[in-house]
Design goal:
By secondary structure, the chain is an alpha+beta fold. The protein is 44% helix and 14% strand. The chain has 4 helices and 3 strands, in the order βααββαα.
Length: 77
């Protein structure tokens, strides 16, 4: 068996979106911009799970709530 306990090597764009809890269009956009590389075998188009993990790690870290609140507060003249 390849990989860890039933962890797939590659998934469809739809499965990747479901895994990440994001819209499939965001995945398609990443493929189109070459942030994610798709692999095709006949009609099956798949994304390597390792590539998806690397792509997610490249996302910026979220700001803390306190930092966002300060940013959105109006500035004093």
């Amino acid at each position: 068996m390849i990989g860890k306990a039933n962890k797939p090597i590659a998934v469809s764009q739809e499965a990747a979106a479901d895994l990440l809890g994001i819209d499939r269009r965001k995945i398609a956009q990443a493929v189109k911009s070459r942030e994610l590389i798709s692999h095709q075998n006949g009609a099956a188009v798949r994304l390597l799970v390792s590539d998806i993990e690397q792509w997610v790690r490249s996302w910026p870290e979220p700001q803390s709530r306190r930092a966002r609140a300060r940013k959105d507060e109006p500035r004093c003249p």
